[in-house]
Each structure stands twice: as structure tokens, then as C-alpha cells.
Amino acid sequence: MTRTIQQLFDLKGRTALVTGGSRGLGLQLAHALGEAGARIMLSARKEDELENAVAQLQSAGIDARWCKADCSSEQDLHRLADETLQRMGDIDILVNNAGAAWGAPAEDHPVAAWDKVMSLNIRGYFLLSQRVGKKSMIPRQRGRIINIASIAGLGGNPEQMQTLAYNTSKGAVINFTRALAAEWGRYGINVNAICPGFFPSKMTAGTLQTWGVENMIQHVPLHRLGDDEDLKGLCLLFASDAGKHITGQWMAVDGGVSCVIGA
User: Fold this and answer.
1) Less crowded by CB within 10 Å, the N or C end of the chain?
2) Higher pLDDT residue, 105 or 75?
């Protein structure tokens, strides 16, 4: 008997680890997984933000906990994976979301800033995926990894944005997703990427202030920015059995911007 659509999207009994989950897109993704029945472990660098986020999830009836970690630190990432396994059991879903951006002209871009962006945005994804895969997903021959990339990883930005390191790192995330999916498919692990467009967040606040929301939405076919619901559906598809035959893929959630720029 084939399952119903409700059964395919049901995440009851599964555990999800979400990095950068204390606010913004990460918290939205945690809500999506928790609302579908998953238990949630949130990670970020600031304890107060984690406490507030977990309280918000728990008030919605979601089983949620937190673990402070710096996702640019190999030691912290190993501790995060190990502590999640110890406290919550096997990890069924890993959402690599923690990230950083930096704006500077390419010719004057600080090397230290380049290294910071690359360390968090792609090296951290690799290290945590490796640890979780080796300790939990590969032995059980199952798992879902969702990498948060960006439409910035599909090409260049307008020259005024000057985000060379960020774009490069997010392009790397997309191909990391493809390569890992190809290699770990034999273990029953699905690896996919979400490429958000512009969503109001702490990271995008400066850009939105400089460009203006009304100006920015003129370049979006749907004439709107992303909101607190727009990533939920795709996240749940990639995390659940409804997406069990999807791997190595990326999808833009950007109101159509990537169609206009021909990505």
C-alpha cells in the first residue's frame, strides 16, 4: 500500500540538527521540521538567542533543545555532533545553515574576511556533514542533509553589492551538495540545497536599507521578498519521505529572480 501524502511528510520520531537556528532562516527551517513532528536541536553562537528560539519552538508544541557552537571551529562542530547524538540519539536530518557575509571590492577584499566567510559557509558544512555522516547516517544507511546556499551562488551580483567571497562560498555549497550526494547515495543519504533569494534578516538588513525594499522588489517577478513561511515547504520536502528520490539538487526560492538573471 502506498502512503498518503500526510504520511509521506510526517517527521514524527526523527531528530533534526539545525545550525544557525536561533533566528532568521534557520529558525524558520526549525519550525518547519518541528511542526512536522521532528525533535529539534538548535545551534548558534549566542546563548540568549538560542534560549529565546527554543522557548518559541516549545511554545508551539515542538520538542526543541539547544547547543552553543561556533560552526567555523572544527572542535566545536565535533562537540556539537557528539552532544546531539548523546542527548537526542541518532541524527536523521542535518540542516547546514550557519553562514556569514562580507562586503568589499574584490581588489581590496581582506584575506582574513575571505577566510572567515569560507570557513563558516563551506568548510563548516563539510566538517559537520562528515561527522554526522560517519557517526550516525552511514552506519544506519539513511539520512537527509539540507545545505542552505543562495541565489548568490548561481552567478554574480550587481557590482554595488561587492560580495565576492559570499558568492564564491555559496557556489561551492551547491557543488558540495552535488558531489556529496553522488558519493553518499549508496548509503541511502539524500543531500540537497536550498537557494534563497532576498529575505529580511540580520544579514541582509544593510543591503535592504541601502537599496530600499520597494526598489528591490521591482527586480523580483513576484514583486515581494521572502517571508517567514516561504522556505518551509521545500525544507519539508527535502527532509521527508516525500522527497526520498530527490538528491543532489538545488532549488531557488527567490520569487523568480534567478529566472530574470538567467541562472
Assistant:
1) N
2) 75
Q: In this structure, which amino acid lies at residue 70?
A: D
| Chain centroid offset of residue 1 CA | 33
Set 9, 66, 166, 250: catalytic member: 166
> Do strands 250-253 and 39-44 pair parallel, antiparallel, or not at all (unpaired)?
unpaired
* Whole-Å CA distances, 200 to 108, 140, 159, 207: 27, 38, 21, 10
**Lookup: cell for 148:** 542552505
Among this protein's residues, is 166 annotated catalytic?
A: yes
Q: Which domain covers residue 134, as residue numbers? A: 5-255
Number of domains in the chain: 1
| Domain membership flag for residue 261 | no
Residue 35 belongs to domain with CATH number: 3.40.50.720
- 194-221 per-position pLDDT tens digit: 999 988 877 666 667 776 777 788 889 9
Looking at residue 260, what is its pLDDT? Answer: 80
Does residue 263 lie in a domain region? no
